[in-house]
Amino acid sequence: MLAHLPPVLQNLQLPLRLRLWDGHELDLGPSPSVTLVLKEPQVISQFSHPSLDRLGSAFIEGKVDVEGEIGDVIRLCDELSQAILHDDDGTAPVRSAHDKDTDERSIAYHYDLSNEFYQLWLDRDMAYSCAYFHTGQETLEQAQQDKFRHLCRKLRLRQGDYLLDVGCGWGGLARFAAREFGARVLGITLSKEQLKLARARVVAEGLQHQVELQLLDYRDLPQDGRFDKVVSVGMFEHVGHANLGLYCQRLCGAVREGGLVMNHGITARHTDGRPVGRGAGEFIGRYVFPHGELPHLSMVDAQVSEAGLEVVDVESLRLHYARTLQHWSTRLENQLETAAGMVSEQSLRIWRLYLAGCAYGFSRGWINIHQILAVKPYTDGHTGLPWTRDDIYSS
Q: Which InterPro entries has this protein been placed in (predicted)?
């Protein structure tokens, strides 16, 4: 049966089994923990150059099935890809067009899938962003509440502050800021499905006099400095490299002098922002986040500064996001039968690979995530901030 295999596969020692379309099984190493089921002869050609994009696409298109824990599947496919392709630092970054129509379609593709589907595996507030773990042993619900509190404390949110939440999702942070810190909040999103549920939850909690949610593009934000604080969680990944400067300018124009701006978002490993190597970035761009582009931390800092803001604090939450994604992946895997009744088979395959693959990628340092806090200084240069960060972490 070795004649079926490309020569590059015949000397590997991976705990991986291939089950061929004719029922024969081939082990690539001892004690296989994962089986890849190849549904048709043509798919064997994918294994002569097994990029993560090609392997993932074969699974999404139903040409390959998997047996085993999804985390083990991701790890072994990466080891297979690395053994044959070796290190690959990715292709040069592609600068996508990011006009309003394109961004609205991209957001709808990702976020308007089904509110019920997201509810299966997110926490009760449906926070679709990196949680914050004090020990790593917290439940997902606790860690997401701790993330909301961490953001509000960094923003030094006070009773009566007017907070702008850019990319507010299902409104969990907006409601938390209003309920726990007494803020007034304007949240904006491009997702109609998110907005519908988020508004219903605001009303259900009796917060409609404090929280207003709108379908609004960041490019249309008022530029009169009316907000005391601005928070943006999981948003600048969708902005694109070409528009990152404009995005920062719009946030700067929306906040008053002495006001704080928090950007919480995924950042690239490479300084030029090129995608993750061996095809992983291409897979995410094709199937998960169309037109998504990750900026490097240095790129974000540069554009924030050029816009007139001053960076005062940066924190990496890479391992926090790896843990968050592990929670999400496990919760989805435990609900596969229910999920299959909510979304198409192809969509479910995409999300299984995406969540488990990103958990693996963050744990390995392929990508990062940073909270970047900036202030809009007064004209005389002072910021009004404390001398230390003790107040952020004090009980």
A: CFA/CMAS, CfaB-like, CMAS, DUF7884, SAM-dependent_MTases_sf
